[in-house]
Amino acid sequence: MQQVVATLAAVLALGCGGQAVPPPPVTANAATPPPIASSSLSAAAPGTSQAAPSQADGSLTGTVLETMDSGGYTYLRLRTSGGEVWAAVRQAAVEKGSQVTVVNGMTMTGFESKTLERTFDHIVFGSLGGSAASGAAAAGAPTDPHALAAVAAPHAGIASGLADVGAIDVKKAEFPDARTVAEIFAGKASLDGKPVSVRGKVVKYNPDIMGRNWIHLRDGSGSRGKKDDDITVTTAQTAAVGDVVVARGTVHLDRDFGAGYAYPVILEDARITK
Protein backbone atom coordinates (compact mmCIF):
# COMPACT_ATOMS: atom_id res chain seq x y z
CA MET A 1 0.00 0.00 0.00
CA GLN A 2 2.82 2.38 0.89
CA GLN A 3 4.44 1.64 -2.48
CA VAL A 4 1.20 2.50 -4.30
CA VAL A 5 0.87 5.77 -2.40
CA ALA A 6 4.50 6.66 -3.14
CA THR A 7 4.01 5.92 -6.84
CA LEU A 8 0.83 8.03 -6.95
CA ALA A 9 2.63 10.89 -5.20
CA ALA A 10 5.46 10.73 -7.73
CA VAL A 11 3.00 10.88 -10.64
CA LEU A 12 1.21 13.87 -9.13
CA ALA A 13 4.51 15.63 -8.51
CA LEU A 14 5.52 15.10 -12.12
CA GLY A 15 2.18 16.48 -13.31
CA CYS A 16 2.58 19.59 -11.19
CA GLY A 17 6.24 20.24 -11.72
CA GLY A 18 6.79 19.03 -15.26
CA GLN A 19 6.57 21.20 -18.33
CA ALA A 20 3.19 21.61 -19.96
CA VAL A 21 2.63 19.57 -23.09
CA PRO A 22 2.17 21.98 -25.98
CA PRO A 23 -1.11 21.83 -27.89
CA PRO A 24 -1.13 20.24 -31.35
CA PRO A 25 -0.35 22.63 -34.20
CA VAL A 26 -3.27 24.35 -35.88
CA THR A 27 -3.33 24.54 -39.64
CA ALA A 28 -4.33 27.98 -40.85
CA ASN A 29 -6.75 28.32 -43.75
CA ALA A 30 -8.75 30.97 -45.48
CA ALA A 31 -11.84 30.35 -43.34
CA THR A 32 -10.16 30.25 -39.92
CA PRO A 33 -7.74 33.02 -38.90
CA PRO A 34 -4.53 31.70 -37.31
CA PRO A 35 -4.35 31.61 -33.52
CA ILE A 36 -2.24 34.09 -31.62
CA ALA A 37 1.13 32.63 -30.76
CA SER A 38 1.36 31.85 -27.05
CA SER A 39 4.20 33.00 -24.85
CA SER A 40 5.42 32.55 -21.30
CA LEU A 41 7.63 35.63 -21.31
CA SER A 42 7.56 37.90 -18.30
CA ALA A 43 6.12 41.41 -18.51
CA ALA A 44 7.89 43.65 -20.98
CA ALA A 45 9.01 47.16 -20.17
CA PRO A 46 6.53 49.92 -21.05
CA GLY A 47 6.63 50.81 -24.73
CA THR A 48 7.97 47.41 -25.79
CA SER A 49 6.14 44.39 -27.10
CA GLN A 50 6.56 40.66 -26.84
CA ALA A 51 5.12 37.52 -28.34
CA ALA A 52 1.40 37.61 -27.60
CA PRO A 53 -0.11 35.27 -25.01
CA SER A 54 -3.55 33.95 -25.86
CA GLN A 55 -6.50 32.32 -24.22
CA ALA A 56 -7.68 28.85 -25.17
CA ASP A 57 -9.96 30.25 -27.88
CA GLY A 58 -7.16 32.34 -29.42
CA SER A 59 -8.44 35.65 -28.06
CA LEU A 60 -6.34 38.21 -26.21
CA THR A 61 -7.67 39.98 -23.10
CA GLY A 62 -5.98 42.77 -21.19
CA THR A 63 -6.21 46.17 -19.55
CA VAL A 64 -5.58 49.17 -21.83
CA LEU A 65 -2.45 51.04 -20.74
CA GLU A 66 -2.04 53.25 -23.81
CA THR A 67 -3.91 54.01 -27.04
CA MET A 68 -2.87 55.63 -30.31
CA ASP A 69 -5.08 56.36 -33.33
CA SER A 70 -3.33 56.39 -36.70
CA GLY A 71 -4.24 55.54 -40.27
CA GLY A 72 -7.79 54.52 -39.39
CA TYR A 73 -6.68 52.08 -36.69
CA THR A 74 -6.37 52.15 -32.92
CA TYR A 75 -3.18 50.75 -31.43
CA LEU A 76 -3.55 49.38 -27.89
CA ARG A 77 -0.85 48.59 -25.35
CA LEU A 78 -2.40 45.93 -23.15
CA ARG A 79 -1.41 44.50 -19.79
CA THR A 80 -2.24 40.80 -19.97
CA SER A 81 -1.61 37.83 -17.71
CA GLY A 82 1.52 37.10 -19.74
CA GLY A 83 2.93 40.64 -19.90
CA GLU A 84 2.46 43.73 -22.03
CA VAL A 85 1.31 43.24 -25.61
CA TRP A 86 0.51 45.62 -28.46
CA ALA A 87 -2.65 45.08 -30.49
CA ALA A 88 -4.29 46.96 -33.37
CA VAL A 89 -7.97 47.16 -34.33
CA ARG A 90 -10.06 49.34 -36.61
CA GLN A 91 -10.29 52.82 -35.07
CA ALA A 92 -12.57 52.85 -32.07
CA ALA A 93 -13.10 54.84 -28.87
CA VAL A 94 -11.22 52.82 -26.27
CA GLU A 95 -10.50 54.31 -22.85
CA LYS A 96 -7.32 53.82 -20.85
CA GLY A 97 -7.91 51.53 -17.91
CA SER A 98 -10.69 49.62 -19.61
CA GLN A 99 -10.50 45.88 -20.20
CA VAL A 100 -10.83 44.71 -23.79
CA THR A 101 -10.67 41.46 -25.69
CA VAL A 102 -9.15 41.19 -29.15
CA VAL A 103 -10.56 38.28 -31.16
CA ASN A 104 -9.57 36.63 -34.46
CA GLY A 105 -6.03 37.82 -33.85
CA MET A 106 -3.10 37.51 -36.22
CA THR A 107 0.37 38.16 -34.79
CA MET A 108 2.87 40.12 -36.89
CA THR A 109 6.60 40.03 -36.12
CA GLY A 110 8.79 43.04 -36.82
CA PHE A 111 5.80 45.10 -37.97
CA GLU A 112 6.72 48.59 -39.15
CA SER A 113 3.99 51.23 -38.96
CA LYS A 114 4.66 53.93 -41.53
CA THR A 115 2.11 56.30 -40.02
CA LEU A 116 3.48 55.96 -36.48
CA GLU A 117 7.09 55.78 -37.67
CA ARG A 118 7.90 52.93 -35.32
CA THR A 119 8.47 49.19 -35.43
CA PHE A 120 6.75 46.70 -33.12
CA ASP A 121 8.60 43.49 -32.25
CA HIS A 122 5.22 41.77 -32.03
CA ILE A 123 1.72 43.13 -32.57
CA VAL A 124 -1.67 41.43 -32.80
CA PHE A 125 -4.09 42.55 -35.50
CA GLY A 126 -7.70 41.63 -34.84
CA SER A 127 -11.13 42.93 -33.91
CA LEU A 128 -12.65 44.08 -30.64
CA GLY A 129 -14.89 41.58 -28.93
CA GLY A 130 -17.81 42.01 -26.55
CA SER A 131 -19.33 45.41 -25.81
CA ALA A 132 -16.31 47.18 -27.30
CA ALA A 133 -17.13 45.59 -30.64
CA SER A 134 -20.68 46.91 -30.44
CA GLY A 135 -19.37 50.41 -29.81
CA ALA A 136 -17.00 50.17 -32.75
CA ALA A 137 -19.80 48.99 -35.02
CA ALA A 138 -22.02 51.84 -33.88
CA ALA A 139 -19.23 54.26 -34.74
CA GLY A 140 -19.16 52.87 -38.27
CA ALA A 141 -16.02 50.73 -37.97
CA PRO A 142 -16.40 47.34 -39.72
CA THR A 143 -15.75 44.31 -37.49
CA ASP A 144 -15.22 41.61 -40.09
CA PRO A 145 -12.12 39.75 -38.83
CA HIS A 146 -10.61 39.28 -42.29
CA ALA A 147 -10.98 42.97 -43.14
CA LEU A 148 -9.49 43.95 -39.79
CA ALA A 149 -6.50 41.63 -40.02
CA ALA A 150 -5.86 42.56 -43.64
CA VAL A 151 -4.28 45.85 -42.55
CA ALA A 152 -1.23 43.87 -41.45
CA ALA A 153 -0.35 42.77 -44.97
CA PRO A 154 0.10 46.06 -46.85
CA HIS A 155 1.37 47.99 -43.84
CA ALA A 156 4.01 45.38 -43.04
CA GLY A 157 5.27 45.52 -46.61
CA ILE A 158 4.08 42.08 -47.69
CA ALA A 159 2.34 43.64 -50.66
CA SER A 160 3.99 47.05 -50.67
CA GLY A 161 6.76 49.07 -49.08
CA LEU A 162 9.43 46.58 -50.10
CA ALA A 163 13.00 47.15 -49.01
CA ASP A 164 15.36 49.23 -51.13
CA VAL A 165 18.08 46.72 -52.00
CA GLY A 166 19.59 48.64 -54.91
CA ALA A 167 19.64 47.67 -58.57
CA ILE A 168 18.45 44.13 -59.25
CA ASP A 169 19.96 42.13 -62.10
CA VAL A 170 20.09 38.47 -61.10
CA LYS A 171 21.16 35.70 -63.46
CA LYS A 172 18.60 33.01 -64.20
CA ALA A 173 19.13 29.73 -62.32
CA GLU A 174 20.77 26.85 -64.20
CA PHE A 175 18.18 24.12 -63.77
CA PRO A 176 15.81 22.40 -66.23
CA ASP A 177 12.81 23.83 -64.37
CA ALA A 178 14.33 27.30 -63.90
CA ARG A 179 12.28 30.37 -64.77
CA THR A 180 12.70 34.08 -64.30
CA VAL A 181 10.08 35.88 -62.25
CA ALA A 182 8.48 37.30 -65.39
CA GLU A 183 8.49 33.87 -67.05
CA ILE A 184 6.59 32.38 -64.12
CA PHE A 185 3.87 34.99 -64.54
CA ALA A 186 3.82 34.63 -68.33
CA GLY A 187 3.55 30.83 -68.18
CA LYS A 188 1.41 30.60 -65.05
CA ALA A 189 -1.42 28.63 -66.70
CA SER A 190 0.87 25.78 -67.76
CA LEU A 191 2.96 25.94 -64.57
CA ASP A 192 0.08 25.67 -62.10
CA GLY A 193 0.79 22.80 -59.70
CA LYS A 194 4.29 22.21 -61.06
CA PRO A 195 7.69 22.70 -59.40
CA VAL A 196 9.74 25.69 -60.52
CA SER A 197 13.15 27.08 -59.59
CA VAL A 198 13.75 30.83 -59.55
CA ARG A 199 16.80 32.83 -58.53
CA GLY A 200 16.20 36.30 -57.15
CA LYS A 201 17.09 38.89 -54.56
CA VAL A 202 15.12 38.93 -51.32
CA VAL A 203 13.37 42.31 -51.11
CA LYS A 204 11.06 41.43 -48.22
CA TYR A 205 11.06 38.77 -45.52
CA ASN A 206 8.28 38.21 -42.98
CA PRO A 207 8.73 35.25 -40.61
CA ASP A 208 6.17 33.04 -38.93
CA ILE A 209 2.90 34.25 -40.42
CA MET A 210 0.21 31.58 -40.61
CA GLY A 211 2.79 28.90 -39.89
CA ARG A 212 5.21 29.82 -42.66
CA ASN A 213 7.84 32.39 -43.68
CA TRP A 214 7.06 34.79 -46.54
CA ILE A 215 9.68 35.98 -49.02
CA HIS A 216 9.44 38.39 -51.94
CA LEU A 217 11.92 37.75 -54.76
CA ARG A 218 12.88 39.98 -57.69
CA ASP A 219 15.41 39.24 -60.40
CA GLY A 220 15.14 42.33 -62.60
CA SER A 221 12.71 40.78 -65.07
CA GLY A 222 9.16 42.01 -65.54
CA SER A 223 7.81 45.44 -64.63
CA ARG A 224 5.77 47.17 -61.96
CA GLY A 225 3.22 48.21 -64.55
CA LYS A 226 2.47 44.60 -65.44
CA LYS A 227 2.94 43.43 -61.84
CA ASP A 228 5.10 40.56 -63.00
CA ASP A 229 8.42 41.59 -61.44
CA ASP A 230 7.89 40.23 -57.90
CA ILE A 231 7.09 36.67 -56.82
CA THR A 232 5.88 35.73 -53.34
CA VAL A 233 7.42 32.58 -51.89
CA THR A 234 6.40 30.63 -48.79
CA THR A 235 8.93 28.43 -47.04
CA ALA A 236 9.87 26.89 -43.71
CA GLN A 237 13.40 28.24 -44.13
CA THR A 238 14.80 31.66 -43.34
CA ALA A 239 16.36 34.37 -45.48
CA ALA A 240 17.59 37.93 -45.12
CA VAL A 241 16.71 41.00 -47.14
CA GLY A 242 19.40 41.51 -49.77
CA ASP A 243 20.26 37.80 -50.09
CA VAL A 244 20.37 36.28 -53.57
CA VAL A 245 18.77 32.85 -53.29
CA VAL A 246 17.30 30.07 -55.40
CA ALA A 247 13.79 29.06 -54.41
CA ARG A 248 12.35 25.77 -55.66
CA GLY A 249 8.67 25.32 -54.91
CA THR A 250 5.29 24.60 -56.43
CA VAL A 251 3.43 27.21 -58.45
CA HIS A 252 -0.15 27.86 -57.39
CA LEU A 253 -2.68 30.29 -58.85
CA ASP A 254 -5.33 32.45 -57.21
CA ARG A 255 -4.45 31.49 -53.65
CA ASP A 256 -6.51 33.22 -50.95
CA PHE A 257 -5.32 32.51 -47.40
CA GLY A 258 -7.75 34.94 -45.83
CA ALA A 259 -6.79 37.96 -43.69
CA GLY A 260 -5.81 39.89 -46.82
CA TYR A 261 -3.35 37.32 -48.15
CA ALA A 262 -4.50 36.75 -51.74
CA TYR A 263 -2.12 36.08 -54.62
CA PRO A 264 -2.74 35.49 -58.34
CA VAL A 265 0.59 33.60 -58.50
CA ILE A 266 2.62 32.22 -55.59
CA LEU A 267 5.46 29.74 -55.09
CA GLU A 268 4.66 27.54 -52.09
CA ASP A 269 6.60 25.22 -49.78
CA ALA A 270 9.86 26.25 -51.39
CA ARG A 271 13.34 24.99 -50.59
CA ILE A 272 15.76 27.91 -50.31
CA THR A 273 19.42 27.63 -51.29
CA LYS A 274 22.13 30.22 -51.93
Account of the 3D structure:
The protein has six helices and ten strands, in the order αβββββαααααβββββ. The termini are far apart. The strands form two sheets. It has a five-stranded mixed barrel with strand order 1-2-3-5-4. It is α+β, with helices and mostly antiparallel strands and 274 residues long. The model is unreliable at 1-50, 134-151 and 153-161 (pLDDT under 50). The protein is elongated, with a radius of gyration of 22 Å. Among the domains are: 60-155, OB fold (Dihydrolipoamide Acetyltransferase, E2P) (Beta Barrel), CATH 2.40.50; 181-273, Nucleic acid-binding proteins (OB fold (Dihydrolipoamide Acetyltransferase, E2P)).
Please give the share of residues in helix: 10-25%
Give the C-alpha Rg: 22 Å
Order of helices and strands: HEEEEEHHHHHEEEEE
The average pLDDT score comes to 74
Specify the structural class: alpha+beta
How many helices in DSSP terms? 6
Report the span from N to C terminus.
64 Å
Strand order of the largest sheet: 1-2-3-5-4
> What general outline do the C-alpha atoms trace?
elongated
CATH class of the domain at 60-155: Mainly Beta
Largest sheet: 5 strands, mixed, barrel
Give the uncertain stretches in residue-range form. 1-50, 134-151, 153-161
β-strand number: 10
| Percent strand | 35-45%
CATH architecture field of the domain at 60-155: Beta Barrel
CATH topology group of the domain at 60-155? OB fold (Dihydrolipoamide Acetyltransferase, E2P)
Which key phrases capture this entry?
274 residues, alpha+beta, OB fold (Dihydrolipoamide Acetyltransferase, E2P), five-stranded mixed β-barrel, five-stranded mixed barrel, 10 strands, elongated, disordered N terminus
